[in-house]
Automatic annotation (TrEMBL):
<keyword id="KW-0479">Metal-binding</keyword>
<dbReference type="GO" id="GO:0020037">
    <property type="term" value="F:heme binding"/>
</dbReference>
<protein>
    <submittedName>
        <fullName>Cytochrome P450</fullName>
    </submittedName>
</protein>
<dbReference type="Pfam" id="PF00067">
    <property type="entry name" value="p450"/>
</dbReference>
<comment type="similarity">
    <text>Belongs to the cytochrome P450 family.</text>
</comment>
<dbReference type="InterPro" id="IPR002401">
    <property type="entry name" value="Cyt_P450_E_grp-I"/>
</dbReference>
<keyword id="KW-0560">Oxidoreductase</keyword>
<keyword id="KW-0408">Iron</keyword>
<dbReference type="GO" id="GO:0005506">
    <property type="term" value="F:iron ion binding"/>
</dbReference>
<keyword id="KW-0349">Heme</keyword>
<dbReference type="GO" id="GO:0004497">
    <property type="term" value="F:monooxygenase activity"/>
</dbReference>
<dbReference type="InterPro" id="IPR001128">
    <property type="entry name" value="Cyt_P450"/>
</dbReference>
<keyword id="KW-0503">Monooxygenase</keyword>
<feature type="binding site" description="axial binding residue">
    <location>
        <position position="441"/>
    </location>
    <ligand>
        <name>heme</name>
    </ligand>
</feature>
<dbReference type="GO" id="GO:0016705">
    <property type="term" value="F:oxidoreductase activity, acting on paired donors, with incorporation or reduction of molecular oxygen"/>
</dbReference>
<dbReference type="InterPro" id="IPR036396">
    <property type="entry name" value="Cyt_P450_sf"/>
</dbReference>
<dbReference type="GO" id="GO:0016125">
    <property type="term" value="P:sterol metabolic process"/>
</dbReference>
Amino acid sequence: MYSVGVVTLLQLLWEHELPSSFVLVTLGLFLSLVFLCRRNQRHQDTPAHLPRFFLFNTFTFFRRRYDFFVWGFQVTGQRLFQFRLLRNNVVVVSGEQGRRDFFNAKGLDLQEGFVILSGALPIIHGVTTGLRQQRVARIYRRLANAQRSERLTELIPEILNDGRRLLQPWEKAGTLDPFDRIYELIFQATVRCLTCTEIADDPEIVARLRQLFDKVDRGTTPATVLFPWFPSSAMVSKARATKQIYDIIVNAIKVREQSGVSHNDNLQLFLDSGDEMSTIAGFMIGLVTAGARSTGNTASWLITYLGCHPRWRDEARAEVENLISSHALDTISACDSPLQSSTALSSIPLTAWESETPVMDMLIRETLRIAQPHTAMRRNVGPETYIDGKVIPTGTLVVYPFSDVHLNPALYPDPWRFDPTRPQLQADSAYVGWGGGRVTCLGSRTARLTMKLVTALLLLDFDFDTVDENGRIADPHPIPNWNDDLACRPVRGQFFLKHKSLDFPCGRRSPGTHPL
């Protein structure tokens, strides 16, 4: 190949003694062609822009996010599109290649993207936001230590005892809202796993914390996310709730330090490591926010689906009974009532919960797929990168909606149908329930265990069905609201859990019997 450039071109023209005017015109055409080609290439490399006014896009993104994504991909006809969010440019990604690039890009920062776009995290600068990378890395290490096998083994009886205490007030037979009562069980378990004994052992403090975290959620509006400095009523309420959460946690830390009494919990792990109070508080606030909300909603939907599908409810119960028979047979005689089933469950080793529960693993996987309306949020902190052939400049916010893969009928036929028997696809990132690529859920081990323990307690203590407002068995099952990205719960009052206590020691009963 011969080199082609401006200098070479001029030399050729002068050597042939062409008029200077012709040389200049030719040079101008050459430069124009280069400019147009580069401009056209840059245009092709840029994600398509949404056509509507940016305020409309902003409002819809926060209020009806799932519908917004569906509309954006339809109206642009592209796998990536972009829109303005005040001073920020946001790129929305879809497709297998885009998903692979998104989850493996080194420059896409999770923390910065989540803080700017979500607003769901209680904001305390230097505690939950504005953290240096060194402190973030330290928090990740502490979370990994909190999920060591030794620690999780110690937590099993504590989680089960908490669950048994919260189940005791339940009526022998009645109806309840699973998105309230199941969430309560998970919130208590999350507090137990991630905070400290002083908080987890006090039901009033735990209940107060749940109310405050609910206030933070209700205070997360488009206005509070986009204008966090504006003192709207929602922002004031959110700020007050955040301050009260912080005060509760800091007070518990001070009580521990002043007492000098050690406890085998997460707080002691931080104190023994010499971590400062802001790091401890940031860990507890951030992780309880994410853990309780995500795991609580997933567990609520899991029980709702089990109430709609007797086959899976009975198979899951049989699996738990088999665990007891294999690992805790000598404790069954000590169980006088269903509410003492935690005695038997506590004797099952962690390894069995993690490796001998294929039915519950299938149930959790399918529930995450259909009822977790998550949107992964990142910010490109540099350098400029490409996703599916489109340029992502430094500073750009990038999001990937899980609906792109989990509700894709090409991958999951009839995607709204609850079907735990779906094959586990081997395609790259065809399932991202626990994240994908370089970034996966760091608390997934604790979350799985917590959901299994709470589900096991309910299966041994109660039989239950999901019913509508008229008391009829829900058929078809409720559909998660993916526009509600925090809870995706059904409309309040449309569905309930109808339950009845099982009058068998340790929940044992004849397979297939159904007392409701």
